[in-house]
Amino acid sequence: MTDSAATDTAVVRSTTEKGPRVWQGLLIAAVLLAVGQALLPPGLIRPPDWAILPFADWINAAFYYAQNELGLMQVTRAFAGGVEWSLDVTGNLLYGRNRWPRIGPIPWSTVAVTAGMLGYALGGWRLAALAGGTFVWIAVMGQWRWSMETFSVIVVAAPVSVFIGLCMGTLAWRSKTAERIINPILNIAQSLPHFAYMIPVVVFIGLGPKAGAVVTIIFSVPPMIRMTLLGLRKVPEEVVEAGKMSGATRWQLLTRVRLPTARTEILIGVNQVIMQCLAMVVLASFIGMPGLGQRLLQLLQALRIGPSVEIGITIVLLAVTLDRLSRAWAMRQPAHPEPGESWASRNRLWLIWAGLVAAAFGLAQLVPYFHEDERSQALSIAPPIDAGVNWFIGFVSPVTDWIRRVLVVWVLIPFRDAILWLPYTTVLAAVAALGWAVGGWRSALVCVGFILPIALSGWWDRAMITVYTVLAAVTLAGIIGFPLGIWGAGTGRRAAVVRLVCETMQTFPRFIYMIPVVMLFGVSDVAVLAAVMVFATVPIVRYTIEGLDSVPPETVEAAEMSGATRRQVLGNVRLPLAMPTILVGFNQSIMFALFMVIIAAFIGTQDLGQEMQRALSATDVGKGLVLGLAVAFLGLMADHLLMRWAERLRQAQRL
Amino acid sequence: MAQPAISCRNVWKVFGPDPAAHVAALSAGGSGAAGHVVAVRDVTLDVTRGEMLVVMGLSGSGKSTLVRCLSRLIETTAGAIDIDGVEIGSLTEASLIALRREKMGMVFQSFGLLPHRTVLQNVAFPLEMRGMDRMARTARAREVLELVGLRSREDYFPRELSGGQQQRVGIARSLAIEPDIWFLDEPFSALDPLIRREMQDEFLRLKKQMDRTIVFITHDFDEALRLADRIAIMKDGAIVQCDSPDRIVLAPASDYVAKFTAGVDRSRVVHVGTFAMPLPPDAPPEGSPLPAGATLREIARSLVADPRPTIPVADTSGRLVGALDRNAALDLVLEARPA
Ligand SMILES: Nc1ncnc2c1ncn2[C@@H]1O[C@H](COP(=O)(O)OP(=O)(O)O)[C@@H](O)[C@H]1O
Ligand SMILES: [Mg+2]
Fold first, then answer.
1. pLDDT score, position A254
2. Is residue A151 part of a domain?
3. Chain B residues within 8 A of A242 when measuring between CB atoms
4. Which of A237, A246, A264 should be substituted to probe chain B, the one whose Cβ sees the most B Cβ atoms within 10 Å?
5. Do A263 and B116 count as a contact with CB atoms less than 8 A apart?
6. β-bridge partners, B217
7. Which residues on chain A place their C-beta less than 8 Å from a C-beta of chain B?
């Protein structure tokens, strides 16, 4: 009896101690490998040439095969042809592109009035002012053509994405096999950086707006699939049964019961599609998509801060408008009309809209200013902005220069050199140790499985530079975001404001963050770091607030009743309980940072991003996809580590 | 005897990893593997045409599952169910859909309304599935909405209605196609007492009006007594007793059944005809007979005044059908507790 109890505890102790022993051993091995690298054969410091696998060639061969042997080229060309035709139509209507149906451009004033009316119908006066005002701003600033070039792509891409997403989501819901295939693809797709999507598309379709639209469609489909699946799963069983008892066939059940009941989730999916489209369409300027993104890219490269701020404001306004409109649509619940209402009063919004459009149209015929937007008649706030910015730069440049110098000389370069100094075997061992520490041998294996292909791909140094930028940025983001989150949590109003700011910042296309950092730091490593850091701070703040606020109040009260000070409550109760959620925030932060690093590469970095842009301009699919997958694997590894850790913390709290 | 409208033989429904094996094990007298829930246990039952069967039982006793088996919303694990003589387990999807479009209606415990459709469109939904044109189905939907008193709310959406109103929409929807066989899963549970009573009256009226076979689930025994031709009482998936209300009250098959009837004023339930003894063949009792269809409570006054120890009982046509033991009847009336 006592014997077996003793062996039981012995077994328990040995299993709990074996874990630490292994990962500590791995860690020590890593340190030894690093310290003793002078003694190591070179094959253990950098992957030897013979071990490097020609992934890129394999992918190129596969693509060549698909392109030429399988006739995939015809399929993609046909699809792109359809897209191009739609782009021509919207292009003609919105900015008078000389294509069928050759009736455009619609006067900008009617578009603005329509947007305002839509805003009013969906969310009252404030939304009306936002939506209408955005389009008026665009016109008044003389950016109509660029904006409509961008907008016409969204008008085409978003519905196509929504349709494809609905179909694939329904498929995944219907068949377990389909779900098992689609799910991992979605996981990788959502951690592939934007550029990785572009290269294959360029190979199949070429450069230009057509390719940009196709990339935008592909990029924005995954969230729609997820939301469709989620919505269909959430339909209450009794609603479906009621449909069955009404004698509905499977198809009727799907189209008249299930999909309409999943309306809210599907519309949230639509919202995400629209935001993804906007983010991508701006970036698609890299593959020759005209519009706001291209303009911004040119201006930034020419360091013309004033005009780029103007464009930036437009992009932000468009993003916020599209987000609010589509979200208001998703949240809108149907309501009954008042009994005894006349036809006119039921349809008054339509009537007012028709009246306003007619008025705007008439006005546009009389006063050309309201019809077509000429660059020459545009207002510009660029000169005062430039003046202000110059003054501001002059004012802060001693500080920013100092920051830049200190960061570069004392932090970034040493850090980067240290990371590059590490033998790859050290990194492998350290990663395995981390994996083992959070999730045993399985996690260790998963993590090594993610990082080993990077070593074998031949892009080790570039990948390490990416890692260094991301680590540095996320660390800085944590230093800033974490206290900000603690400060913002708790009191209702402050939290609401901080949350609103974070949410709004997240809807901006990432490209926008380049404007202020280029303004402050010029084209440099520090600018990249700053852009990445700003973007990576947002999720940390959000999730810190989220985590702290979801600590049950009884727990906090209990701690207060036992005489804990506020600092003690925070440190001993609230933060530990919030930790799993905060880790989710860090996870997202790393994802965002990875994406941003790649985008920021055009400023000139030496990481994977820059190589990817080279691959893009050389349309080298194999290289581009290998680089993209390397970034995705880094992200997935971080995701695995942090999520396992959060899971463990949660389990420990439950005990 | 005429063919029953619904007939089930040894129906089982088991949830779990290997339901069939579990049923086989239980049927063979074993205990089966762990991790299975027996929701319906070996139910054999006939419902005759035009009959109203009320199913009762504690929550989790398998009532809803049984009804879902009867309508083939879920597949049974074992056993067979016939609807109008046709085994529904063997129907193709198309003929099952046809059966539902023509013959079956169901009211759900949590309503199952379509949130994106107005009340009117919800009620018209089964008609739409049948392919009826818009004008006709709107007219018919208005008709049934009138019946449940919701005409004024026809343009509302379900979320704008109270629970009771939503339930009435559900009832109206199931009535729209005038089903021959009607399943109701706790249809009145969301209604407040006054409306509930009204709906029960309405319900009895509908039942008289049309020759409809009804399976009605409730956990309110008074409701069951008011409505039922027969009551089936379920426990752990099995039917422990299925009998007329009189018999359930007078002769509960087990303590479990007796507990259901405990709070009931039996004299309001038991009919003179059921309570009477067979006529003694040699000397039939003398004098004016009591009506067999009345409850004991209804004849209590004349029972007290009547001096005869045994009183003749006659059916509506005036034929003598039995003899009532006055003392026994008085005992039952007097033990009555307030309902
Ligand atoms: N889909 C299901 N999966 C597993 N168990 C179920 C399912 N549906 C019902 N059950 C179980 O079957 C039993 C009977 O449920 P139900 O028929 O809903 O009872 P009632 O309607 O009498 O309250 C319950 O124990 C319930 O947990
Ligand atoms: Mg139930």
1. 95
2. no
3. 106, 108, 111-114, 170, 173
4. A246
5. yes
6. B55, B185
7. 236, 238-250, 252, 256-257, 260-261, 263, 333-337, 339
**Closest to B100 (Cβ–Cβ): which among A247, A261, A336?**
A247
Q: Is the pLDDT of residue B87 over 50?
A: yes
Q: Please tell me the residue having the least CA distance from ligand 1 atom 4.
A: B15
User: Does residue B92 register a pLDDT over 60?
Assistant: yes
The predicted structure's pLDDT at residue A314:
92
Residue-wise pLDDT for A507-563, tens only, equals 888 778 888 888 888 777 788 888 888 889 999 998 998 888 888 888 888 888 888
- Give the SS3 label for residue B313: strand
Of residues B71, B110, B157, nearest to A238 (C-beta): B110
Contact criterion met (CB below 8 Å) for B233 and B57: yes
Q: Closest-lying ligand to the alpha carbon of B70?
A: 1
Same domain flag for A464 and A592: yes
Structure tokens at A130: 């936002």
Residue environment code for B22-54, b if the CB has 16+ CB neighbours within 10 A, otherwise e: bbeebeeeeebeeebebbbbbbebbbbeebbbb
> Where is the domain boundary, A333, A358, A377?
A333
Last residue of a domain, one of A300, A333, A366: A333
Residue A438 shares a structural domain with residue A561: no
Residue nearest to atom 16 of ligand 1 (CA): B62
Structure tokens at A102: 């050759």
The residues whose Cβ lies within 5 A of ligand 2, an ion, are B 64
A247/B106 touch (CB, cutoff 8 Å), yes or no: no
CA atoms of B110 and B220, how far apart (whole Å): 17
Q: Closest residue (by CA) to atom 7 of ligand 1?
A: B15
Confidence of residue A275 (pLDDT cuts 50, 70, 90): very high
Place B282 in a pLDDT band, splitting at 50, 70 and 90: confident
Nearest to B159 among A238, A333, A339 (CB): A333
pLDDT in tens, A547-604: 888 888 888 888 888 888 888 888 888 888 899 999 989 988 998 888 888 877 777 6
Cβ–ligand 1 contact at B64 (below 6 Å):
yes
Q: Are residues A196 and A174 in the same domain?
A: yes
Contacts of B156 in chain A (CB under 8 A): 336
User: Whole-angstrom Cα distance, residue B272 to residue B292?
Assistant: 5
Q: Which pTM does this prediction carry?
A: 0.86
Quote the domain boundaries for residue A170. Answer: 73-82+161-333
What atom in ligand 1 is closest to the CA of residue B61?
22
The count of structural domains within chain A is 3
Q: Is the CB of B77 under 6 A from ligand 1?
A: no
Q: How confident is the model at residue A24 (pLDDT cuts 50, 70, 90)?
A: confident
Residue nearest (by alpha carbon) to ligand 1 atom 18: B64
For residues A445 and A430, membership in a common domain is answered with: yes
Strand partners, B238: B235
Contact between B246 and B72 (Cβ < 8 Å) = no
Pair of tokens at residue A489: 């949590």
In whole angstroms, what is the distance from residue A414 CA to residue A416 CA? 5
Q: Do A261 and B160 touch (CB under 8 A)?
A: no
φ and ψ at residue A308, rounded to 5 degrees: -70, -30
Q: How far is the CA of B110 from the centre of ligand 2 (A)?
A: 9
Is there a single domain that holds both residue A474 and residue A541?
yes
Residue A585 within a domain = yes
Q: Whose CA is nearest to atom 17 of ligand 1?
A: B62
pLDDT at B120: 95
Residue A138 amino acid letter = I
Q: What ipTM was assigned to the predicted interfaces of this complex? A: 0.89
pLDDT confidence band for B339 (50 / 70 / 90)? very low
The 3-state DSSP class for residue B309 equals: coil
Number of Cβ atoms within 10 Å of the Cβ of A82 = 12
